[in-house]
């Protein structure tokens, strides 16, 4: 049924210029794996809270290769308010006319997967792994394009890389996107991804990140997909000694979204910051699932994730911190806080620690609650109407995690802008 | 008179680091009060840690004789039961462990070692009452967990109170004056003075001369860059106050 | 049932008194075996075994049917695999499902109890005779599968309190048993609960009538003695409207090389304004330092706050067993009902524990507290697994969870797996957890005051567990403190 449909469409993913044999092998293996496993099931621990029916109930053929009328004006409102190296992918394929990669410093390669297959196939090959599970396996089989960033050792890319994933799929259709980011020893870069669009498409992305010794990558993902869209994404990161990966995720779009971020702290002194917020309303369903593995000593994890749920929305936080034997000097903090704004909104949270070393300092916390009545009253007593007071408190709750993410000013303001535009849509908006 | 403590050419470091103590010589006789002064980083706290047997330090040379025995051969708890007491610069909090319970366990551990009968709850309480008068400590402090939620001054007073209860032969007071206001300093000093005894030696480790206005030492030593570079009697401290440590450090 | 060829036999020849106590090793002081003639079912489990047990106990037809229904469900079920436990496959056909001290229909009073048994309980520090009177604790003792003595019965009866063996309750109070049996833990709740429902042998039964405050602690001591036998006791405790009862249970088992199965079910029912406090000190044989032998402790414990303002509190100190799988839970059905779970779990050597609780908030203004302290030493693996669920009707629900783990040594593991599921916006749920190794500064501070390394460790660990230990009745708390020290022997140095 569904699986066959996808098998049949699998030839569509082959780029016009054909593909190297190693890629064909990966695609075949991915398809075989997906055919065997199918979609994730709720009987699997990692998926028990996520209702995938919107995905499994329909058929999602590949999105049309020639996207419809999406022009510069369509994309303009989603752009960063500062200079950037910009790539736009429409329905999962690089759109050169809308992109402006600009001038890159020596030692930086940035472009689409299609171009990388010609110029730097090694970068694409490194984004594929044996034994990818379910949705990632399907992605391996079907990805049509994506973006690739490679920063060589010692190179700092000053301006942020901006990637806009725009979806315009009238009928249900899928875009599978595979991205690769690699930062060499001591290198630095910032990448801001925004996903948005119209229609009921499914965006399924896999991003593979490597940061070498002493390198640093800041990665912001702003998810503002269309109300009927589905967005599943996996980020796999591998950090060498003293490397740093700072991830900030805003999940505020789509009817069903799931973000898995898996970071392996593989060298001594590596550190990761995994911050984010899910802002949900209507009948949105979102799962944020960060998993950090401390495989080396003296690594650090800082994780603060906040959720706001209104109407019948359902938020899920599945955070895991694993500490391997020998990973002494581990310092890990994980915090998930949730705000429920309506009687029918709900949340499931599971902050998990799995510790197999003894010289560790790990803590986690989770809270669920509603707006503080005393604060509401205080604001009202100062003459602020209840609706505004509520919005102020919700904004303060969520803004805190944005401010704490250590983003530079134009980007931080840009993220705050997304928060405010989301708040504008809340019941009794400003 | 035989010495209680004889330190000879003591060299020590934090495990894996460079030598911090570079040849200390010091003799302490019963009944004496010695002050060891010196700038930050001179090795004062390392000396007190090595004397008490704190893990994480290694002795790379020299010797310490205590009551004629090799002190370095004893584990920390045995040193304590033999009468070596360290008043910590930063007393450690132990959540959930009642202060009184802790002290009784410590006291009876020492009594067992000496072959003296252990104190039962009533006897212990009586001993506590007697010693409480020494220091201005409220009953409430005794009912709380060891050092948990104590102010800086309360922690220091609790250290001296423990010293009073355990009646050590050699008491090392590591920066006991730090963080105390003048009233608390007076209370703590009075407590220590009352514990002066012909059979007990006290080593005061301090950065400031201030403490020595209240506890008058018999001997004053200056520790600089891991060595004792100058020694004198109680007037020496006042002299140091005027001249500072700098010229001594360079002279060494 | 005779056609099933069940035999009665006496196990092992009787011996001299000295021979009664066999190699107990150093650490585990309850590892002795009592040589006593036992009535046993042959190993294995089929419908015939279930019928044999029921017949042995002279049960009414309805209970046999209930057991058989559970057995048939169990046959279709699989053991749970979600816990962080490494369990060798268990051959359910190798275990013995019924072993009773051979004293025919059970003792009528303490005078009739086999003196050998009384000695056993003395050795365990359990007062059954005069000492019970002094301690003011009413005791029910369960030896292998059978309740052997219940003290203080008459005094309790004057207040209308029923405290007896489960078997006796089935005979004397069938209506109460029928009404509540399986009402909190349904037969098919899980694999081990289904198994227990089919083959449970005995256990304790308590009923406290409306408005009665039970004047003494009620207590059951469980002992597994026979080799290769499992123990499947079933405890049912009902506090009627406005009643109060505090209940303690303690467990020990002989030291044996093979693993033994303990799959108990405990059901608590608290009606309106009733309060139940249930404390466990579990010290089943944990196996030796190489992980050989030890009890598999797979227990289902659940309490239902059926009425408004009902309260149920679980307190447990888990130091024994090779493997512990146990989640004492509260169904907070009544409005304003209150649940609590206080737990200390220690794993040393190769012990594994996956334990925690479920707090299911169903009624309005329900509240729950969870305090869990896990201590891992040696190669022990210790998992806290807890669920806090706030149902859509549970307006104003509150939960506070604190779970801390202490690590002693490089080869152990500590895991925290909380599930928080909230379906009502007025709920307030807070969860905090920390994991850290034992503090070297604290150890040194204690040693500097003259305490040995072992005493320092014991002191710090007891302090770490303080919030839980203070929830135990006094005599239990003292015993628990000693157990903590014994359990950690050899974990430092």
Considering the chains and any ligands shown, give keywords for the structure.
heterotrimer, A: 430 residues, alpha/beta, 2 domains, ten-stranded mixed beta sheet, nine-stranded mixed beta sheet, 22% helix, B: 252 residues, Rossmann fold, six-stranded mixed beta sheet, four-stranded antiparallel beta sheet, 9 helices, SUF_FeS_clus_asmbl_SufD (chain A), Fe-S cluster assembly protein SufD (chain A), Fe-S_cluster_assembly_SufBD (chain A), SufBD_N (chain A)
Reconstruct the topology from this structure.
The complex is a heterotrimer of chains A (430), B (252) and C (493).
Chain A: H1 2-8, H2 21-37, H3 53-56, H4 72-75, E1 85-90, E2 93-94, E3 108-112, H5 113-119, H6 121-125, H7 134-142, E4 147-151, E5 161-169, E6 174-183, E7 188-199, E8 202-211, E9 216-223, E10 230-239, E11 244-251, E12 256-265, E13 271-280, E14 285-294, E15 300-309, E16 314-323, E17 330-340, E18 346-355, E19 360-369, H8 373-381, H9 386-403, H10 409-424
Parallel strand pairs in A: 1-5, 4-6, 5-7, 6-8, 7-9, 8-10, 9-11, 10-12, 11-13, 12-14, 13-15, 14-16, 15-17, 16-18, 17-19
Antiparallel strand pairs in A: 1-2, 3-4
Helix pairs in contact in A: 2-7, 8-9, 9-10
Chain B: E1 5-14, E2 19-28, E3 33-37, H1 44-52, E4 57-66, E5 69-70, H2 76-81, E6 84-87, E7 94-98, H3 99-114, H4 121-132, H5 139-143, E8 145-146, H6 152-166, E9 170-174, H7 182-194, E10 201-206, E11 219-224, E12 227-232, H8 234-243, H9 246-251
Parallel strand pairs in B: 3-10, 3-11, 6-9, 9-10
Antiparallel strand pairs in B: 1-2, 1-4, 4-5, 7-8, 11-12
Helix pairs in contact in B: 6-7
Chain C: H1 17-20, E1 38-40, H2 47-56, H3 61-75, E2 99-101, H4 115-123, H5 130-135, E3 137-143, E4 146-150, H6 153-158, E5 162-165, H7 166-172, H8 174-180, H9 191-199, E6 204-208, E7 217-223, E8 234-239, E9 244-252, E10 259-262, E11 265-270, E12 275-282, E13 294-305, E14 311-318, E15 323-326, E16 329-332, E17 338-347, E18 352-361, E19 367-377, E20 381-390, E21 398-408, E22 413-422, E23 428-437, H10 440-448, H11 453-464, H12 466-469, H13 474-487
Parallel strand pairs in C: 3-7, 6-8, 7-9, 8-11, 9-12, 10-13, 11-13, 12-14, 13-15, 13-16, 14-17, 15-18, 16-18, 17-19, 18-20, 19-21, 20-22, 21-23
Antiparallel strand pairs in C: 1-2, 3-4, 5-6
Helix pairs in contact in C: 2-3, 3-9, 7-8, 10-11
């Amino acid at each position: 049924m569904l699986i066959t449909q996808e098998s049949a469409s699998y030839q569509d993913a082959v780029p016009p210029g054909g593909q190297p044999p190693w890629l064909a092998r990966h695609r075949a293996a991915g398809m075989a794996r997906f055919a065997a496993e199918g979609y994730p099931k709720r009987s699997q621990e990692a998926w028990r809270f996520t209702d995938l029916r919107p995905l499994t109930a329909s058929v999602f053929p590949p999105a049309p290769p020639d996207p419809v009328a999406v022009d510069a004006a369509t994309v303009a409102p989603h752009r960063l308010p500062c200079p950037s190296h910009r790539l736009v992918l429409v329905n999962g394929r690089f759109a050169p006319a809308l992109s402006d990669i600009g001038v890159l410093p020596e030692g930086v390669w940035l472009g689409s997967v299609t171009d990388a297959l010609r110029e730097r196939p090694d970068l694409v090959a490194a984004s594929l792994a044996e034994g990818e599970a379910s949705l990632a396996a399907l992605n391996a089989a079907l990805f049509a394009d994506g973006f690739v960033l490679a920063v060589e050792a010692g190179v700092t890319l000053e301006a942020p890389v901006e990637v806009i994933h725009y979806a315009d799929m009238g009928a249900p259709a899928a875009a599978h996107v595979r991205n690769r980011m690699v930062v060499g020893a001591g290198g630095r870069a910032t990448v801001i991804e925004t996903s948005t669009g119209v229609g009921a498409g499914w965006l399924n992305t896999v991003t593979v990140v490597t940061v070498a010794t002493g390198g640093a990558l800041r990665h912001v993902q702003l998810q503002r997909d269309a109300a009927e869209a589905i967005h599943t994404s996996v980020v796999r990161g591998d950090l060498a000694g003293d490397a740093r990966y700072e991830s900030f995720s805003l999940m505020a779009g789509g009817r069903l979204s799931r973000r898995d971020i898996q970071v392996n702290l593989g060298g001594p002194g590596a550190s990761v910051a995994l911050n984010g917020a899910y802002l949900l309303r209507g009948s949105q369903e979102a799962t944020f699932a960060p998993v950090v593995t401390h495989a080396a000593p003296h690594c650090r994890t800082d994780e603060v994730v906040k959720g706001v749920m209104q109407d019948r929305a359902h938020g899920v936080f599945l955070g895991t911190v694993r500490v391997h034997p020998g990973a002494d000097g581990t310092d890990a903090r994980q915090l998930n806080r949730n705000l429920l704004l309506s009687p029918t909104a709900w949340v499931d949270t599971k902050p998990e620690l799995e510790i197999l070393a003894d010289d560790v300092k790990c803590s986690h916390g989770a809270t669920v609650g509603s707006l503080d009545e005393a604060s509401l009253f205080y604001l009202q007593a100062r003459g602020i109407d209840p609706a505004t007071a509520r919005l102020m408190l919700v904004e303060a709750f969520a803004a805190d995690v944005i401010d704490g993410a250590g983003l530079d000013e134009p980007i931080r303001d840009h993220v705050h802008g997304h928060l405010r535009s989301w708040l504008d849509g809340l019941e009794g908006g400003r | 008179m035989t010495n209680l403590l004889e330190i000879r050419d003591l060299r020590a470091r934090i495990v894996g680091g460079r030598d911090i103590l570079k040849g200390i010589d010091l003799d302490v006789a019963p009944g004496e009060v010695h002050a060891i002064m010196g700038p930050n980083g001179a090795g004062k706290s390392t000396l007190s840690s090595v004397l008490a047997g704190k893990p994480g330090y290694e002795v790379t040379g020299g010797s310490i004789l205590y009551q004629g025995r090799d002190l370095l051969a004893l584990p920390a708890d045995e040193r304590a039961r033999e009468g070596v007491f360290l008043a910590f610069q930063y007393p450690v909090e132990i959540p959930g462990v009642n202060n009184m319970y802790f002290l009784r366990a410590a006291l009876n551990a020492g009594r067992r070692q000496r072959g003296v009968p252990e104190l039962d709850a009533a006897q212990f309480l009586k001993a506590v009452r007697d010693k409480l008068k020494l220091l201005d400590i409220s009953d409430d402090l005794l009912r709380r967990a060891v050092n948990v939620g104590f102010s800086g001054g309360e922690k220091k007073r609790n250290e001296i109170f423990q010293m009073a209860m355990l009646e050590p032969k050699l008491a090392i007071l590591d920066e006991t004056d730090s963080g105390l206001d003048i009233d608390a300093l007076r209370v703590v000093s009075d407590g220590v003075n009352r514990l002066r005894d012909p059979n007990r030696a006290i080593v005061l480790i301090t950065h400031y001369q201030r403490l020595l206005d209240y506890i008058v030492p018999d001997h004053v030593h200056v520790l600089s860059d891991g060595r004792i570079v100058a020694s004198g009697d109680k007037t020496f401290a006042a002299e140091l106050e005027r001249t500072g440590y700098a010229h001594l450090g360079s002279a060494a | 049932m005779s056609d099933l060829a069940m035999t009665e036999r006496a196990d092992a020849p009787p011996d001299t008194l000295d021979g009664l106590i066999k190699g107990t090793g150093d650490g585990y002081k309850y590892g002795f075996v009592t040589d006593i003639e036992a009535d046993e079912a042959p190993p294995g489990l089929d419908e015939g075994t279930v019928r044999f047990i029921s017949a042995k106990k002279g049960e009414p037809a309805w209970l046999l049917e209930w057991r058989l229904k559970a057995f048939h469900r169990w046959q279709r079920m699989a053991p749970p695999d979600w816990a962080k436990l490494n369990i060798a496959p268990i051959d359910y056909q190798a275990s013995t499902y019924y072993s009773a001290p051979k004293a025919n229909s059970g003792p009528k009073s303490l005078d009739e109890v086999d003196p050998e048994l009384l000695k056993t309980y003395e050795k365990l520090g359990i007062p059954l005779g005069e000492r019970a009177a002094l301690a003011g604790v009413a005791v029910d003792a369960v030896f292998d599968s059978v309740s052997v003595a219940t003290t203080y019965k008459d005094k309790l009866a004057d207040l209308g309190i029923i405290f007896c063996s489960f078997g006796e309750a089935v005979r004397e109070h069938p209506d109460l048993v029928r009404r509540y049996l399986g009402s909190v833990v349904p037969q098919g709740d899980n694999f081990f609960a289904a198994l227990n429902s089919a083959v449970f042998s005995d256990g304790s039964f308590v009923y406290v009538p409306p408005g009665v405050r039970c004047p003494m602690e009620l207590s059951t001591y469980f002992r597994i003695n026979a080799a290769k036998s499992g123990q499947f006791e079933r405890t049912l405790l009902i506090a009627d409207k406005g009643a109060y009862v505090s209940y303690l249970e303690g467990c020990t088992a002989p030291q044996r090389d093979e693993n033994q199965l303990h799959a108990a079910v405990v059901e608590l029912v608290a009606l309106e304004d009733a309060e139940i406090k249930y404390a466990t000190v579990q010290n089943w044989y944990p196996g030796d330092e190489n992980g050989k032998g030890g009890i598999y402790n797979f227990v289902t414990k659940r309490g239902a706050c059926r009425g408004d303002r009902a309260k149920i509190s679980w307190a447990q100190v888990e130091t024994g067993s090779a493997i512990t799988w146990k989640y004492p839970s509260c169904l907070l059905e009544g409005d304003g009902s209150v649940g609590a779970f206080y737990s200390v779990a220690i794993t040393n050597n190769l012990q594994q524990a996956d334990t925690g609780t479920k707090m299911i908030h169903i009624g309005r203004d329900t509240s729950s507290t969870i305090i869990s302290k896990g201590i891992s030493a040696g190669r022990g693996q210790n998992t806290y697994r807890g669920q806090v669920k706030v149902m859509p009707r549970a307006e104003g629900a509150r939960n506070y969870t604190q779970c801390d783990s202490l690590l002693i040594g490089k080869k152990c593991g500590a895991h925290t797996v909380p599930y928080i599921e909230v379906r009502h916006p007025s709920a307030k749920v807070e969860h905090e957890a920390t994991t850290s190794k034992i503090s070297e500064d604290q150890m040194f501070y204690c040693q500097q005051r003259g305490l040995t390394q072992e005493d320092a460790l014991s002191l710090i660990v007891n302090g770490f567990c303080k919030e839980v230990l203070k929830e135990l009745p006094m005599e239990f708390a003292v015993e628990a403190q000693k157990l903590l020290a014994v359990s950690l022997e050899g974990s430092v140095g």
